[in-house]
Structures are given as C-alpha cells and as structure tokens.
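pipeline/complex-builder :: batch 7 item 3
reading input block
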Amino acid sequence: GQNIDQPTEMTATEGAIVQINCTYQTSGFNGLFWYQQHAGEAPTFLSYNVLDGLEEKGRFSSFLSRSKGYSYLLLKELQMKDSASYLCAVNYGGATNKLIFGTGTLLAVQP
Amino acid sequence: EAGVAQSPRYKIIEKRQSVAFWCNPISGHATLYWYQQILGQGPKLLIQFQNNGVVDDSQLPKDRFSAERLKGVDSTLKIQPAKLEDSAVYLCASSLVRGGGYTFGSGTRLTVV
C-alpha cells in the first residue's frame, strides 16, 4: 500500500529555522507537494518537487531525494503566522494522477 | 480564474439522516477529488474522477457513501445514512493535468450528532 510518514507535532521559536521531514513509499512517483493548512481552512500550495534537489521560494524551501523516498520542508525566519499544519502529499500512479496525503505536522511557533 | 466552489460551508445533521455536498471545479479541470479530513488528520481520498469516470473509489464506504460527476463538470457526494464517525471536513479538489497544481475548495464541515 501507499504510505507517507511525517512527525505529528513540532515547536519552534519565532525567527528561527525549522525542518519538517517526510518519508514516503508509493507505487510510482510523479512528484511531491507541500501544503500549508491553517485551522479550519483548506490546504494551500507551498511547493512541488519532481526532481532531486532543493527548491527555494522565499522563506520556504523544499528538498527531495527520490532514491531515499525522502523530502523536507525548510522554513526560515519563522513568523507567528507560520503556525499551521504542514501536509506532505505524493502524486503517484502515473497517468491516473493520484494524490495521497500524510497526516500532517502541526507546527507551533512560539514568541 | 474562479476557484473550486463547494457548498454548503457547514452542515449539522442527526445520525441516520442523509446529506449531500456539491462541488464545482475550476473550468477545464478534468480530474476531481473528494477527500475526507477528520480533525487532526491529513485528508483521506474518498473518490477520484477523470472527466465523468471513476479512477479510484477504493476507500469510499460504498454502503453509505455515493458520488457522481455528471457531464464531467460538477460533482455531488452523498452520505446516507450518516454515522457519528462521518463528522469531518469534506474537501473537493481539482487538477488540470498529471502533476499539475491541485486547487482545493473551502470544504464542507459536517457535524453528525
């Protein structure tokens, strides 16, 4: 079956850097997404990795290693508004375009 | 570009009643997904449509849940009869092509009492 693992909760301090890890096992791989979800809201897109390496977008960066089935999301210069759940999701299944989510990592940013 | 529209935004029903949710995806998006998100968990795929055909409904509790996507555009998800454990947010998402962006609607928060 398909499986995605990520930590349940993390805590970090405002202004610091935090890394949220994600490991996956899926039948086929098209790409990996990171979404941010604030309480009571729909997930919003953060990043998409298809090839190995680091993708940087402002304060957020995402890394992918396909051989290791591993990704991480790096958040720099943390702000209070970054307190949210961060969802790792894998697009797999070739042309069927399936998308499976991890359980999410609830990040609490403290002053 | 208009986003994914969902209604209603909130719904409270008693157990054993029926309920229906509606989703209108982004125009031209061939793939439509319904996810169930229980509080504190990640979204779980219920059913995926490609145009008006079902791609994956392996996790849909077919004894009580049903979904359709007539004419390959908007979709409805129905629960009949509802159980307490169906309390969750039901998210609809759509995408244009494989690996393309997935856009989520605001979701319908269902409470079964």
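note: The radius of gyration of chain A is 14 Å.
queue -> next item
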